[in-house]
Design brief:
Layout (H helix, E strand, L loop, with lengths): L1 E6 L2 H17 L4 E6 L1 H4 L4 E5 L8 H6 L1 H18 L3 E5 L2 H14 L4 E4 L12 H7 L2 E4 L2 H9 L5 E2 L3 H7 L8 H7 L7 E5 L4 H15 L6 E6 L5 H5 L8 E4 L2 H6 L1 E7 L2 H9 L3 E5 L4 H11 L7 H6 L6 E3 L5 H13 L1 H18 L4 H16 L1
Parallel strand pairs: 1-2, 1-4, 2-3, 4-5, 5-6, 6-7, 8-9, 8-11, 9-10, 11-12, 12-13
Amino acid sequence: MRYFIIAGEASGDLHASNLMQELKKQDSNADFCFLGGDLMAAQGGQLIKHYRQMAFMGFVAVLLNAKTILKNMDDCKSAISAFKPDVVILVDYPSFNLRIARFVKENFKTPVYYYISPKIWAWKEYRIKEIKKYIDKMFTIFPFETEFYAKHNYKVDYVGNPTVDSISNRPNQEQSFHEFCKKNDLLNKPIIALLAGSRKQEISACLPRMIEAAENYSEYQVVISGAPGIDKEYYQTTLKNPNVRLVFDQTYDLLQHSDAAIVNSGTATLETALIGTPQVVVYYQSLGRLAYLMKNLVIKVKYISLVNLIAEKEVVKELIAHLFTVKNMTDELAKILKDDSYRKKMIAEYGRIRNILGEKGAAEKAAGMMISSLVISD
Protein backbone atom coordinates (compact mmCIF):
# COMPACT_ATOMS: atom_id res chain seq x y z
CA MET A 1 0.00 0.00 0.00
CA ARG A 2 0.96 3.62 -0.49
CA TYR A 3 1.31 5.73 2.65
CA PHE A 4 1.53 9.53 2.69
CA ILE A 5 2.74 10.71 6.11
CA ILE A 6 3.11 14.24 7.50
CA ALA A 7 5.26 15.10 10.53
CA GLY A 8 6.23 18.73 11.10
CA GLU A 9 8.58 18.51 14.09
CA ALA A 10 11.52 16.52 15.47
CA SER A 11 9.37 14.44 17.83
CA GLY A 12 6.95 13.69 15.00
CA ASP A 13 9.86 12.57 12.82
CA LEU A 14 10.90 10.08 15.51
CA HIS A 15 7.45 8.63 16.09
CA ALA A 16 6.57 8.55 12.38
CA SER A 17 9.83 6.75 11.57
CA ASN A 18 8.99 4.04 14.11
CA LEU A 19 5.52 3.72 12.59
CA MET A 20 7.04 3.42 9.09
CA GLN A 21 9.36 0.68 10.31
CA GLU A 22 6.40 -1.30 11.64
CA LEU A 23 4.33 -0.69 8.51
CA LYS A 24 7.17 -2.16 6.43
CA LYS A 25 7.28 -5.24 8.66
CA GLN A 26 3.58 -5.86 8.24
CA ASP A 27 3.19 -4.70 4.64
CA SER A 28 5.96 -5.91 2.32
CA ASN A 29 4.67 -3.60 -0.42
CA ALA A 30 4.71 -0.45 1.71
CA ASP A 31 5.61 2.65 -0.30
CA PHE A 32 6.13 6.00 1.42
CA CYS A 33 5.90 9.64 0.48
CA PHE A 34 6.23 12.12 3.32
CA LEU A 35 6.95 15.44 4.92
CA GLY A 36 9.26 14.84 7.84
CA GLY A 37 12.91 14.46 8.75
CA ASP A 38 16.06 12.40 8.60
CA LEU A 39 14.71 9.52 10.68
CA MET A 40 11.78 9.07 8.33
CA ALA A 41 14.09 9.39 5.32
CA ALA A 42 16.19 6.53 6.71
CA GLN A 43 13.12 4.26 6.38
CA GLY A 44 12.97 4.90 2.64
CA GLY A 45 10.53 6.61 0.33
CA GLN A 46 10.24 10.13 -1.06
CA LEU A 47 10.89 13.13 1.19
CA ILE A 48 8.88 16.11 -0.05
CA LYS A 49 9.76 18.64 2.64
CA HIS A 50 12.01 18.57 5.72
CA TYR A 51 10.46 19.67 9.01
CA ARG A 52 13.21 22.28 9.35
CA GLN A 53 11.33 24.19 6.65
CA MET A 54 8.04 23.81 8.52
CA ALA A 55 8.65 24.38 12.25
CA PHE A 56 7.35 27.88 12.98
CA MET A 57 6.09 28.64 16.49
CA GLY A 58 4.06 31.60 17.67
CA PHE A 59 1.89 34.19 15.94
CA VAL A 60 4.76 36.47 14.92
CA ALA A 61 6.88 33.66 13.47
CA VAL A 62 3.91 32.35 11.51
CA LEU A 63 3.11 35.83 10.20
CA LEU A 64 6.70 36.48 9.11
CA ASN A 65 6.90 33.12 7.37
CA ALA A 66 3.38 33.07 5.91
CA LYS A 67 4.65 32.81 2.33
CA THR A 68 6.80 29.78 3.17
CA ILE A 69 3.96 28.11 5.06
CA LEU A 70 1.56 28.56 2.14
CA LYS A 71 4.13 27.14 -0.26
CA ASN A 72 4.68 24.15 2.04
CA MET A 73 0.95 23.51 2.00
CA ASP A 74 0.70 23.82 -1.78
CA ASP A 75 3.67 21.49 -2.25
CA CYS A 76 2.09 18.99 0.12
CA LYS A 77 -1.24 19.06 -1.72
CA SER A 78 0.52 18.61 -5.07
CA ALA A 79 2.52 15.67 -3.70
CA ILE A 80 -0.62 13.95 -2.40
CA SER A 81 -2.34 14.41 -5.75
CA ALA A 82 0.65 12.97 -7.60
CA PHE A 83 1.36 10.09 -5.19
CA LYS A 84 -2.25 8.88 -4.98
CA PRO A 85 -1.90 7.26 -1.56
CA ASP A 86 -4.09 4.55 -0.09
CA VAL A 87 -4.09 6.52 3.17
CA VAL A 88 -2.86 9.84 4.53
CA ILE A 89 -1.39 9.58 8.03
CA LEU A 90 -1.04 12.77 10.07
CA VAL A 91 1.29 13.08 13.06
CA ASP A 92 0.35 15.86 15.53
CA TYR A 93 1.18 19.31 13.94
CA PRO A 94 -2.52 20.31 13.84
CA SER A 95 -2.49 23.80 12.27
CA PHE A 96 -1.01 22.36 9.10
CA ASN A 97 -2.36 18.82 9.21
CA LEU A 98 -6.03 19.63 9.74
CA ARG A 99 -5.95 21.86 6.66
CA ILE A 100 -4.46 19.00 4.69
CA ALA A 101 -7.10 16.64 6.08
CA ARG A 102 -9.81 18.94 4.79
CA PHE A 103 -8.15 19.10 1.36
CA VAL A 104 -7.96 15.30 1.14
CA LYS A 105 -11.56 14.68 2.20
CA GLU A 106 -12.91 17.36 -0.14
CA ASN A 107 -10.99 16.13 -3.17
CA PHE A 108 -10.43 12.38 -2.81
CA LYS A 109 -11.95 9.27 -1.27
CA THR A 110 -8.67 8.58 0.54
CA PRO A 111 -9.00 7.77 4.27
CA VAL A 112 -7.22 10.09 6.68
CA TYR A 113 -5.73 8.68 9.88
CA TYR A 114 -4.25 10.61 12.79
CA TYR A 115 -1.39 9.10 14.79
CA ILE A 116 -0.70 11.14 17.94
CA SER A 117 -3.63 13.42 18.57
CA PRO A 118 -3.36 17.20 18.59
CA LYS A 119 -3.50 18.42 22.17
CA ILE A 120 -7.01 19.78 21.84
CA TRP A 121 -7.71 18.57 25.39
CA ALA A 122 -5.36 21.37 26.50
CA TRP A 123 -6.33 24.19 24.15
CA LYS A 124 -8.28 24.84 20.95
CA GLU A 125 -10.95 22.30 21.84
CA TYR A 126 -13.03 23.67 18.97
CA ARG A 127 -10.83 21.63 16.63
CA ILE A 128 -12.91 18.59 17.57
CA LYS A 129 -15.35 19.68 14.85
CA GLU A 130 -12.67 19.38 12.17
CA ILE A 131 -11.44 16.09 13.57
CA LYS A 132 -14.91 14.55 13.55
CA LYS A 133 -15.49 15.82 10.02
CA TYR A 134 -12.17 15.04 8.33
CA ILE A 135 -10.41 12.29 10.35
CA ASP A 136 -11.52 8.70 9.73
CA LYS A 137 -9.51 7.16 12.58
CA MET A 138 -7.62 8.57 15.53
CA PHE A 139 -4.82 6.57 17.19
CA THR A 140 -4.00 8.08 20.57
CA ILE A 141 -0.98 7.75 22.88
CA PHE A 142 -2.31 8.92 26.26
CA PRO A 143 -4.94 6.99 28.25
CA PHE A 144 -6.78 10.15 29.32
CA GLU A 145 -7.46 11.05 25.66
CA THR A 146 -9.97 8.19 25.37
CA GLU A 147 -12.24 9.78 27.95
CA PHE A 148 -11.79 13.25 26.45
CA TYR A 149 -12.89 12.16 22.99
CA ALA A 150 -15.72 10.03 24.36
CA LYS A 151 -17.11 13.23 25.86
CA HIS A 152 -17.39 14.48 22.27
CA ASN A 153 -18.92 11.22 20.98
CA TYR A 154 -15.82 10.37 18.97
CA LYS A 155 -14.23 6.91 19.29
CA VAL A 156 -10.45 6.67 19.35
CA ASP A 157 -7.99 3.80 19.62
CA TYR A 158 -5.36 3.97 22.39
CA VAL A 159 -2.28 2.15 21.11
CA GLY A 160 0.16 2.82 23.95
CA ASN A 161 2.80 5.52 24.11
CA PRO A 162 5.63 5.56 21.55
CA THR A 163 7.95 7.26 24.02
CA VAL A 164 7.85 4.04 26.05
CA ASP A 165 9.14 2.23 22.95
CA SER A 166 11.84 4.82 22.27
CA ILE A 167 13.15 4.66 25.83
CA SER A 168 12.92 0.87 26.10
CA ASN A 169 14.73 0.32 22.80
CA ARG A 170 17.36 3.04 23.16
CA PRO A 171 20.98 2.07 22.51
CA ASN A 172 23.89 2.42 24.97
CA GLN A 173 21.87 1.47 28.04
CA GLU A 174 24.93 -0.35 29.41
CA GLN A 175 27.22 2.62 28.77
CA SER A 176 29.06 3.77 31.89
CA PHE A 177 29.29 7.35 33.08
CA HIS A 178 33.04 7.27 32.42
CA GLU A 179 32.51 6.07 28.84
CA PHE A 180 29.96 8.80 28.17
CA CYS A 181 32.23 11.53 29.52
CA LYS A 182 35.25 10.22 27.61
CA LYS A 183 33.29 10.01 24.36
CA ASN A 184 32.19 13.66 24.68
CA ASP A 185 35.35 15.08 26.24
CA LEU A 186 33.50 15.94 29.45
CA LEU A 187 34.85 16.40 32.95
CA ASN A 188 34.64 13.64 35.54
CA LYS A 189 31.94 15.56 37.44
CA PRO A 190 28.22 14.85 37.94
CA ILE A 191 25.98 16.42 35.28
CA ILE A 192 23.03 18.79 35.17
CA ALA A 193 21.38 18.39 31.76
CA LEU A 194 19.62 21.22 29.91
CA LEU A 195 16.93 20.48 27.31
CA ALA A 196 15.83 23.83 25.93
CA GLY A 197 13.46 22.71 23.17
CA SER A 198 13.67 21.96 19.45
CA ARG A 199 12.95 25.38 17.95
CA LYS A 200 15.22 28.40 17.76
CA GLN A 201 12.65 30.66 19.43
CA GLU A 202 12.44 28.30 22.43
CA ILE A 203 16.18 27.94 22.72
CA SER A 204 16.91 31.66 22.62
CA ALA A 205 14.17 32.38 25.17
CA CYS A 206 14.99 29.57 27.63
CA LEU A 207 18.62 28.56 27.44
CA PRO A 208 20.39 31.62 28.94
CA ARG A 209 18.32 31.43 32.14
CA MET A 210 18.69 27.67 32.34
CA ILE A 211 22.46 27.98 32.12
CA GLU A 212 22.56 30.72 34.75
CA ALA A 213 20.58 28.60 37.20
CA ALA A 214 22.60 25.42 36.64
CA GLU A 215 25.90 27.29 37.01
CA ASN A 216 25.03 28.01 40.63
CA TYR A 217 26.09 24.42 41.35
CA SER A 218 29.83 24.50 40.72
CA GLU A 219 30.27 20.88 41.80
CA TYR A 220 28.29 19.87 38.70
CA GLN A 221 29.08 20.29 35.01
CA VAL A 222 26.39 21.75 32.77
CA VAL A 223 25.68 19.89 29.52
CA ILE A 224 23.18 20.98 26.86
CA SER A 225 21.37 18.52 24.64
CA GLY A 226 21.57 19.93 21.10
CA ALA A 227 18.27 19.71 19.24
CA PRO A 228 18.02 17.91 15.89
CA GLY A 229 17.99 20.38 13.02
CA ILE A 230 19.66 23.20 15.00
CA ASP A 231 23.24 24.02 13.99
CA LYS A 232 25.98 24.03 16.59
CA GLU A 233 26.78 27.62 15.60
CA TYR A 234 23.36 28.77 16.81
CA TYR A 235 24.12 27.55 20.33
CA GLN A 236 27.48 29.32 20.34
CA THR A 237 25.71 32.69 20.57
CA THR A 238 24.45 31.63 24.01
CA LEU A 239 27.44 29.68 25.30
CA LYS A 240 29.55 32.40 26.90
CA ASN A 241 31.04 30.02 29.47
CA PRO A 242 33.42 27.50 27.85
CA ASN A 243 32.76 25.09 30.71
CA VAL A 244 29.17 24.62 29.53
CA ARG A 245 29.25 21.75 27.06
CA LEU A 246 27.03 20.76 24.15
CA VAL A 247 26.28 17.25 22.85
CA PHE A 248 24.20 16.23 19.84
CA ASP A 249 22.22 13.07 19.07
CA GLN A 250 22.70 11.74 22.62
CA THR A 251 19.73 13.09 24.56
CA TYR A 252 18.84 9.75 26.12
CA ASP A 253 22.47 9.01 27.00
CA LEU A 254 22.84 12.46 28.55
CA LEU A 255 19.70 12.06 30.67
CA GLN A 256 20.75 8.58 31.76
CA HIS A 257 24.02 9.97 33.14
CA SER A 258 22.62 13.20 34.66
CA ASP A 259 21.73 13.79 38.29
CA ALA A 260 19.13 16.42 37.35
CA ALA A 261 17.65 18.13 34.31
CA ILE A 262 15.98 21.40 33.44
CA VAL A 263 13.54 20.60 30.65
CA ASN A 264 11.45 22.80 28.38
CA SER A 265 7.87 21.53 28.41
CA GLY A 266 7.09 19.00 25.70
CA THR A 267 7.72 15.33 24.91
CA ALA A 268 11.16 15.67 26.51
CA THR A 269 9.57 15.88 29.97
CA LEU A 270 8.08 12.42 29.52
CA GLU A 271 11.33 11.05 28.07
CA THR A 272 13.18 12.38 31.09
CA ALA A 273 10.69 10.76 33.47
CA LEU A 274 10.80 7.37 31.74
CA ILE A 275 14.60 7.36 31.90
CA GLY A 276 14.28 8.27 35.58
CA THR A 277 16.10 11.60 35.83
CA PRO A 278 14.67 14.09 38.36
CA GLN A 279 13.69 17.30 36.58
CA VAL A 280 12.21 20.75 36.76
CA VAL A 281 9.95 21.75 33.85
CA VAL A 282 10.04 25.26 32.40
CA TYR A 283 8.11 27.15 29.76
CA TYR A 284 8.72 30.69 28.53
CA GLN A 285 5.85 33.05 27.83
CA SER A 286 6.17 36.68 26.86
CA LEU A 287 4.25 39.13 29.07
CA GLY A 288 4.91 36.64 31.87
CA ARG A 289 2.53 37.51 34.72
CA LEU A 290 -0.26 38.63 32.40
CA ALA A 291 0.11 35.47 30.34
CA TYR A 292 -0.04 33.41 33.53
CA LEU A 293 -3.26 35.11 34.62
CA MET A 294 -4.75 34.56 31.17
CA LYS A 295 -3.68 30.92 31.12
CA ASN A 296 -6.89 29.54 32.58
CA LEU A 297 -8.91 31.25 29.86
CA VAL A 298 -6.91 29.48 27.15
CA ILE A 299 -5.58 26.24 28.61
CA LYS A 300 -8.18 23.72 29.73
CA VAL A 301 -5.91 21.50 31.83
CA LYS A 302 -4.37 22.03 35.24
CA TYR A 303 -0.81 21.15 34.21
CA ILE A 304 1.35 21.74 31.15
CA SER A 305 3.89 18.90 31.47
CA LEU A 306 3.03 15.43 30.21
CA VAL A 307 4.42 13.97 33.42
CA ASN A 308 1.90 15.76 35.63
CA LEU A 309 -0.96 15.33 33.14
CA ILE A 310 -0.52 11.56 33.09
CA ALA A 311 -0.07 11.36 36.87
CA GLU A 312 -3.02 13.75 37.37
CA LYS A 313 -1.04 15.54 40.08
CA GLU A 314 2.15 17.54 40.52
CA VAL A 315 5.09 15.17 40.26
CA VAL A 316 7.53 17.71 38.80
CA LYS A 317 7.62 21.44 39.44
CA GLU A 318 6.36 23.57 36.54
CA LEU A 319 7.92 27.02 36.25
CA ILE A 320 6.01 28.86 33.54
CA ALA A 321 5.61 32.50 32.51
CA HIS A 322 6.73 34.82 35.36
CA LEU A 323 7.63 31.80 37.51
CA PHE A 324 10.35 30.87 35.01
CA THR A 325 13.18 32.66 36.82
CA VAL A 326 16.78 31.84 37.64
CA LYS A 327 16.02 31.89 41.37
CA ASN A 328 13.08 29.50 41.10
CA MET A 329 15.09 27.06 38.98
CA THR A 330 18.02 27.30 41.39
CA ASP A 331 15.74 26.59 44.36
CA GLU A 332 14.13 23.61 42.66
CA LEU A 333 17.50 22.17 41.67
CA ALA A 334 18.51 22.41 45.34
CA LYS A 335 15.56 20.18 46.29
CA ILE A 336 16.33 17.69 43.52
CA LEU A 337 20.04 17.49 44.26
CA LYS A 338 20.14 17.89 48.04
CA ASP A 339 16.83 16.59 49.44
CA ASP A 340 17.00 12.79 49.23
CA SER A 341 13.35 12.17 50.18
CA TYR A 342 12.13 14.72 47.61
CA ARG A 343 14.25 13.05 44.94
CA LYS A 344 13.13 9.52 45.81
CA LYS A 345 9.47 10.52 45.82
CA MET A 346 9.75 11.96 42.30
CA ILE A 347 11.48 8.83 41.00
CA ALA A 348 8.81 6.62 42.62
CA GLU A 349 6.08 8.61 40.86
CA TYR A 350 7.94 8.08 37.57
CA GLY A 351 7.44 4.34 38.14
CA ARG A 352 3.68 4.83 38.54
CA ILE A 353 3.58 6.78 35.27
CA ARG A 354 5.29 3.89 33.47
CA ASN A 355 2.56 1.56 34.74
CA ILE A 356 -0.20 3.93 33.59
CA LEU A 357 1.21 4.09 30.04
CA GLY A 358 1.49 0.33 29.75
CA GLU A 359 3.82 -1.91 27.78
CA LYS A 360 5.84 -0.93 24.73
CA GLY A 361 4.63 -1.65 21.19
CA ALA A 362 2.65 1.48 20.25
CA ALA A 363 3.96 1.76 16.69
CA GLU A 364 3.53 -1.97 16.11
CA LYS A 365 -0.05 -1.90 17.36
CA ALA A 366 -0.92 1.25 15.41
CA ALA A 367 0.53 -0.16 12.18
CA GLY A 368 -1.43 -3.39 12.57
CA MET A 369 -4.70 -1.57 13.20
CA MET A 370 -4.13 0.76 10.26
CA ILE A 371 -3.37 -2.05 7.83
CA SER A 372 -6.30 -4.17 9.03
CA SER A 373 -8.65 -1.21 8.64
CA LEU A 374 -7.40 -0.43 5.15
CA VAL A 375 -7.71 -4.06 4.02
CA ILE A 376 -11.28 -4.26 5.32
CA SER A 377 -12.23 -1.00 3.61
CA ASP A 378 -10.91 -2.31 0.29
